[in-house]
Amino acid sequence: MVWGFYSYAERKTGGQAAEQFKYTYESKSYFNGLTFALYSLLFAFNLLIPVFVAMSAGTQVAGEARAGTLRMIAVRPVSRVALILSKFSVVALHTLLLMAFFVGLNLLVGLVFVGWGELQLYPGALNLVEEPGRIARDEALWRFAYAVVTGTWALLVVASIGMLFSVVTDSPVTATVVTFTLYLTLYIVGRVEFFEGLRPYFFTTGMDFWRDVFKPDVPWTSVYHYAGVCGAYTFGALLAAVSIFDRKDITT
């Protein structure tokens, strides 16, 4: 991402100001650490962090089955429901730490290599605003903190689906691959114009709500609505996982 910022600035300014990462044809202070962190976080959230979440969730039950420890755990005086919920809690905590790590890492890299400034937003690749806007530095840092919470909540959808497939199959690799494949397929198809009518029914569409905290004026009504949608998907998948695991034959 840093290399991309450097090459873009160099190309747009003819190499005159690329060393400062600052100048584009839109603004003389566009490139800064906060802008870098936002770009990097958006791409990481869409294509990288879900892989780790799917891996974490997909191994929770299937990994125990593959290792031969599932029956040993199940004979303990703990209900299967409590077992699944405790494992999901661990996945949720792991997801929160992942989001916090990525946000903190990107902000640190942006500060060291680029330097902070105001978070300026323009219509384009981020698809956040329809007209130029800006967020002051201190307020922008709070928005990144909000993104840790909203991003974690959105990723719990992937986590719950991973738990479901982890219960259905005894292979952690299969659970992980199927979870991420489903996520990636709906993510790509949902961005193809031909399938615009199906987009509202994909859970990946609701997951995009976490980005709204970076808009100059946060649409809280929309945020709460899609947070509820993601919560419904999470609860539904987790309920299915609990129901299947509670009846699952693990004696063979």
Keyphrases for this structure?
252 residues, mainly alpha, 2 domains, two-stranded antiparallel ribbon, 10 helices, elongated
- Extended strand count: 2
The residue fraction in helices comes out at 55-70%
* Neighbour order of strands in the largest sheet: 1-2
What class would the helix/strand composition place it in? mainly alpha
Q: Give the overall shape.
A: elongated
Question: Could you characterize what this model shows?
Answer:
This protein is mainly alpha-helical and 252 residues long. It has two domains: 1-31, no CATH class; 44-247, no CATH class. It contains ten helices and two strands, in the order H-H-H-H-H-H-E-E-H-H-H-H. A two-stranded antiparallel ribbon has the order 1-2. The termini are far apart. The relative contact order is 0.14. The mean pLDDT is 86.
List the helices and strands and how they pair.
Elements: H1 2-13, H2 33-47, H3 49-58, H4 62-67, H5 70-74, H6 80-113, E1 119-121, E2 133-135, H7 137-168, H8 172-189, H9 203-207, H10 220-247
Helix pairs in contact: 2-6, 3-6, 3-7, 3-8, 6-7, 6-10, 7-8, 7-10
Compose a concise summary of this entry.
With 252 residues, the chain is mainly alpha-helical. 65% of the residues lie in helices and 2% in strands.
